[in-house]
Amino acid sequence: MTSLQVNLPRDTARPVSVVPSPPRPTSPATRFDPSAPYPFTAIVGQDDMKLAFLIAAIDPSVGGVLVFGDRGTGKSTAVRALARLLPQLRVVEGCAYNCDPGAPGGMCEACRKTIPGEALKTALRPAPVVDLPLGATEDRVVGALDLERALTRGEKSFEPGLLARANRGFLYIDEANLLEDHLVDLLLDVAASGENVVERDGLSVRHPARFVLIGSGNPEEGELRPQLLDRFGLSVDVKTPTDIATRVEVVRRRDAFEREPARFQRAWAPEEQKLRRRIAAARRRIGEIEAPDAVMEKAAQLCVALGSDGLRGELTLLRAARALAAFESRTSVDDAGLRRVAPFALGHRLRRNPLDEAGSAVRVARAIEETFGA
Amino acid sequence: MTVGASALMDDAWGRLAFAAALFAVDPLQSGVSLRAAPGPARDAWLALLRDYLPIAAPVTRAPVNIADDRLLGGLDIAATLRAGRPIAETGLLARSHGGVLVLAMAERQSARTAAHIAVALDRGGIALAREGLAARQDARIGVVALDEGQGDDERPPAALLDRLAIHLDLAGARPWAGVPGLIAPSEVAAARALLAKVATPPEAIATLVSVAARFGVDSLRAPLLALRVARAACALRAASIVEEIDLEIAARFVLAPRATCLPAPPQDNASEDNASQDNDKPDNDKPDSDKPEKDARSGSAADTPQNDNHGRNRQTPEDIVVAAACAALPADILARLAGGDVRSGSSPRSGQSGATRVSSRRGRPLGARRGALREGRLSLIDTLRAAAPWQTLRRLERLGAERQALHVHPDDFRITRFRERRETVAIFVVDASGSSAMRRLAEVKGAIEMMLADCYVRRDSVALVIFRGERAEILLPPTRALARARRLLAATPGGGGTPLAHGLDMAATLAESVRRKGMTPLVALLTDGKANIDRTGAPGRARALVDALQAAQRLRLSGCAAIAIDTSPAASGADAPTLKIAEAMKARYLRLPFVDAARLSEAVRAAATAP
């Protein structure tokens, strides 16, 4: 390094291909086991949060869930548990982006290229629920030059990041309010467009990144930027249960789980299986759910009454209500369904007076009452 | 052993030593918050803990402001350059696996650091996704948070405290001189071995949860941690079933320090409480997907223990545990709780500083660009990336010269650039004097609320300076808690003289301190300009106005943007005192009756964005 040379003109470098390098295996010796989460069905109470997650699992197009609330209410637990309930995905084998062999339009470049020739090998993979660790750097999120291959072999290759892994699944940000602003912007942008465009390190890559963004946070640790709020489809406030019996049950189950996780999971396996089937059935049915004109009108009225901006609120409201109908084995959306999902589809979209501590819940409740009658 | 434990509990150091033993029995994914000034007492406690922990367990120490890459791990720069391929470096959390992490100056740790540690405590491991590395690592750790905070404001981040079982305060502990009946390390080891066999009767859980509720402890982690401590206490007794005495100990160490209210005196009310709260639950008519839960809830959980106890004696175990825990509360906390002046669990203060810190100091990285080393901070990763594609070529070129793993040229150097978001702090200087208050204070408050709403949108912080009577005071130091500002303002009574000069002086001082912290101050003065108290606090209209003009000039010299809003009712044209003051401080001048929301917010925005 002492004798520094003039660098060579860039065009003497040989052309390099941009290929995804295979995901790096982690050594089994240093692995904690995230695959044994607390069962979703064993979560006591928190019905709103659970329902919001189920709706997102049934119809990912509702556009993400934001869970804000007290500490120790099982926000993270619920997300991690959700992973076990999602139906498995059929993917192109070896694809770093979980490409869907049935939908050539949304494939990554590598998969699209192989399609004319031979039939793609497919595999079943659990739907990804990717945890975005706090402190993740941008290069790991969007993907970047594979340093190892670049250094050892002089190859320019793209190492997919967390967004690639989350394709067709869920991306979970705990403490979303502590994440650096530019990362949040980036995530919301990708979540909205369904595509991750990487222009860095001399790489130019685009790949599908359709995922459901789940953010959680504790308002005490700093507020979420108001601009971000309505980028989430649904938003739920969670509170610590106050009645003793519920609290006892929470502690009892949690304790039982911590002492003997395997046994606890076995005990809840039938419930989990039942819910898994219900989600899968709801997913199949959702296309057939009808939304009668009268109900659509009510939804519009509700949005007007609340003065929620744009059509996003209405759209989310209907989608969520449809997912709920599918989950409850009904054939069409009804008023009761709208009422149930309206608080989390609309609550965070109101033009809010930041100083009004009464909160939006009251206003939504009032508007619901006016629209549907008490 | 039972005798030993209760003897220990009678002595201050005995209790501290006992707490160390309890933690050492079951340290992983739990912790201790140790509030103490640095000194021999704290060192003695830590040494005691070290003796109690297994010899093989690592005890590591995290300094304040530990960087993310040190805590989580990252690229080992030296090794990477030597080897010519990325070498990961294990972070402190993973290195503490199976042992205890001692967190220095926990009260000053950022919310981010706390969140990282909280993840490790919750999940027993960390997921790494930094600097081209992706890994999962085991990090089952216990945490000892050394809290050197002084007042109530200085506390470790709430997210962390919530996950630490035992909260201790060493204040007033005499120097360590041994304790009679001290638990031996071998006893702790034996208890650790016994722990898995300790059985918990179901009513023990109900008791702990009820006790937690009676102390006003919201978080559900508290009773869970208390349960673990109760088991540890039981194992220390070399017993195999958790009994009342264990619950008492758990309540003393885990629940009592978290108390936000004093338990009501014992009465036969528990069942009534339950009933009323159940009725309050709004979602009784929801589609019922969790039937079995309900049954379990109403069936076993609440009723059994109470029914048992009514038959046996009048005092429920819950009352006994509560009484024991109350005995553990230091006198000052008791007084505070009784007075209702409580550091509530949901105060927004605790986390606020962390959130601001993130945005003010770090800035938004603008990416890296080519540059010389002295121009800024080298972005190592980007430099390596720039150099990487050329390695094969450069190696070929330098064949025969000395072996070098990595060929980095000066034009590979990449410098990180940051754009720092200059955060604005709007300092409201509000005239709450009699002359102002009588007529207009409500209107002024309305105007401030409009501006506060504007600040919210821009994510500005606000501060409130109020002047009335003889002097000014900082009602609210810079904060993002706008709702709190509004509350304080609404609760402020008006009356007294108009110490305008003092108010402006205080605003200037505050503005300077804001600027020192790297933020941009903006002063919004709301007054009728009828100054009648001078700087010394003496009445006198003429002197007061001169002083006020001087103070205004000082503000101008400090170069901070300002707007002055005249709240006087009379149209006094060019010689309105507020106008003069506005000119002296080079502030934009607005008259309240003629200002509507749009103009007001436009004025604030213009002032805030002025260079």
Supply the key terms.
heterodimer, A: 374 residues, alpha/beta, Rossmann fold, Helicase, Ruva Protein, domain 3, 5-stranded parallel beta sheet, two-stranded antiparallel ribbon, 14 helices, 11 strands, 42% helix, 14% strand, globular, disordered N terminus, B: 611 residues, 4 domains, 6-stranded mixed beta sheet, 26 helices, 18 strands, flat
Structure write-up:
The complex is a heterodimer of chains A (374) and B (611). With 374 residues, chain A is of the alpha/beta class. Among the domains of chain A are: 33-88 and 126-239, P-loop containing nucleotide triphosphate hydrolases (Rossmann fold, 3-Layer(aba) Sandwich); 289-372, Orthogonal Bundle (Helicase, Ruva Protein, domain 3), CATH 1.10.8. Helix content of chain A is 42%, strand content 14%. Chain A contains 14 helices and eleven strands. Chain A has a five-stranded parallel beta sheet with strand order 4-7-10-1-11, with helices on both faces. A two-stranded antiparallel sheet of chain A has the order 2-3. Chain A is globular and about 70 Å long. The termini of chain A are far apart. Chain B has 611 residues and is an alpha/beta fold. Chain B has four domains: 11-180, P-loop containing nucleotide triphosphate hydrolases (Rossmann fold); 198-274 and 296-347, Helicase, Ruva Protein, domain 3; 365-419, no CATH class; 424-609, Rossmann fold (3-Layer(aba) Sandwich), CATH 3.40.50.410. Chain B has a six-stranded mixed beta sheet, with helices on both faces. In chain B, strands 2-5-8-1-9 form a five-stranded parallel beta sheet. Chain B has a three-stranded antiparallel beta sheet with strand order 10-12-11. In chain B, β16 (520-527), α24 (541-557) and β17 (561-566) form a beta-alpha-beta unit. The longest helix of chain B is centred in the last third of the chain and has 25 residues, at 434-458. Chain B is flat, with a radius of gyration of 31 Å. Chain B starts with a helix and ends with a helix. The model of chain B is unreliable at 266-313 and 339-363 (pLDDT under 50). The chains are: A alpha/beta (374), B alpha/beta (611).
